[in-house]
Structures are given as C-alpha cells and as structure tokens.
Specification:
The complex is a heterodimer of chains A (about 110) and B (about 110). Chain A is about 0% helix and about 50% strand. By secondary structure, chain A is mostly beta strands. In chain B, the strands form two sheets. In chain B, strands 2, 4, 5, 9, 10 and 11 form a six-stranded mixed sheet that branches. A five-stranded mixed sheet of chain B has the order 1-3-8-7-6, with no helix packed on it. The chains are: A mainly beta (about 110), B mainly beta (about 110).
Chain lengths: ~110, ~110
C-alpha cells in the first residue's frame, strides 16, 4: 500500500513550456486534491475532484488544468509555465471511505520555472 | 501562535519539554480541524484531528484542544523529542458541501534542542 505517489519529484521548466504532474492513490478514495506550497506559507488549493469524472476550482486555479483520469489518478497540467508557478506541488486524497475527512498527502513535486 | 493566514512563527524547546502550538481560525462554520507535521522535503503527515462536537482529543504524546468560543485550536506535544522538529500546520474544514476542502494555516516551525 503505497498511499499517494507523485511524479516527478523535481522538474525545471523554461517560461512557456508545458508539463503534467502525475498523482495516483491506492486507497480507493473518491476525493483528490492538488495544492501548491510557497516558501513560508501554508498549502493553497488549486483544484479538487470530489469523484471520478468531476473536477472543481479551488483557491488558485489560474494557469492550471486538471484531469481525473480514473478513480486512482488525478493529474495537474501547466499549459504555459510562468515563474510565478515555481512552487512545491502536493497531491492529496481524502479518506471518504471511513468518513474521517483526513487528507493524505504525497511527497510533492518541486517545480522551478526559469 | 499561528493564525490561518498570517506569518510563520517559531517555537524552540529543549528535549523532554512539553510543546504547545497554537492556531486561530476565523470560520465559525468549520466543523473539522486537523494538525499536520511537515518535515523538510516531505509532504504533510497527519498527526491528529478533532470535530467541533469535541473539546479535546488525545493521541500518542499529542493532544488537541478546541475552544470554539474564541475560535482557537492548540496542539500539545508531550516530552518533545528531536524527531518532532518540523513545521506544524493546522487546517479547518467548513463541512457541508465543501467536499472536504481544507483551509491551511501558514505553519509554526518547531525546533527541539537536544
């Protein structure tokens, strides 16, 4: 049981390049989330997916798109990266099986946009 | 103490001391609160949670206290160890149709000196 996994762990992009961050969970959770974390700050919600086939905007969605590929996988895409998107990105899934509302996080992707 | 949305405070303690990390929240509709620990280079790790119908909940070496009157949450760590050194975040969930969306505080840095 790996929990929440993310790839890649590190990435450097040039302004204008695109990339997709991958996330997968093996806990059979319905809800999944993407957050970004900037230095000295807490996590801010980018997008979330309450169930397979649905996605909704969070607090800071501009410049991002998401895809809930299936129940396990939730990807985050940057179509045209900007230096302001330099951050650490975390994926999480919520324990809606036991209805505890606890979110479990992946190890993060550290993205630098030059 | 920490407030959901302000600068990052720090707390330094000696090994063996008890630590208290504070958090103020602003949404009186929040019905679920959770504490996370984040070590350098890792994702947030669940510590303990509490629902709004409780005032106190205990785990192994940790206790969370909730004061709804003044919208204050605290995390107490007993016999603090060097391995407890990390950034600690509180988060709240407004419940209802929020689909488990958490609002995070900006964290408190705990440093434990041997």
């Amino acid at each position: 049981n790996a929990g929440v996994t993310q790839t890649p762990k590190f990435q450097v992009l040039k302004t204008g390049q695109s990339m997709t961050l991958q996330c997968a969970q093996d806990m059979n959770h319905n809800s999944m989330y993407w957050y970004r974390q900037d230095p000295g700050m807490g996590l801010r919600l980018i997008y979330y997916s309450a169930s397979e086939g649905t996605t909704d905007k969070g607090e800071v969605p501009n410049g991002y798109n998401v895809s809930r590929l299936n129940k396990r996988e939730f990807s985050l895409r940057l179509e045209s990266a900007a230096p302001s998107q330099t951050s650490v990105y975390f994926c999480a899934s919520r324990d809606d099986i036991l209805h505890t509302d606890t979110q479990y996080f992946g190890p993060g992707t550290r993205l630098t946009v030059l | 103490g920490e407030s959901v949305g302000l600068h990052l405070p720090t707390l330094s303690v000696q090994e063996g001391d008890n630590s208290i990390i504070n958090c103020a929240y602003s949404n009186s509709a929040s019905d679920y609160f959770i504490w996370y620990k984040q070590e350098s280079g890792k994702g947030p790790q669940f510590i303990i949670d509490i629902r709004s119908n409780m005032d106190k909940r205990q785990g192994q070496r940790v206790t969370v206290l909730l004061n709804k009157t003044v919208k204050h949450l605290s995390l107490q760590i007993a016999a603090t160890q060097p391995g407890d050194s990390a950034v600690y975040f509180c988060a709240e969930n407004a419940g209802g149709t929020s689909y488990g969306k958490l609002t995070f505080g900006q964290g408190t840095i705990l440093t434990v000196h041997p």
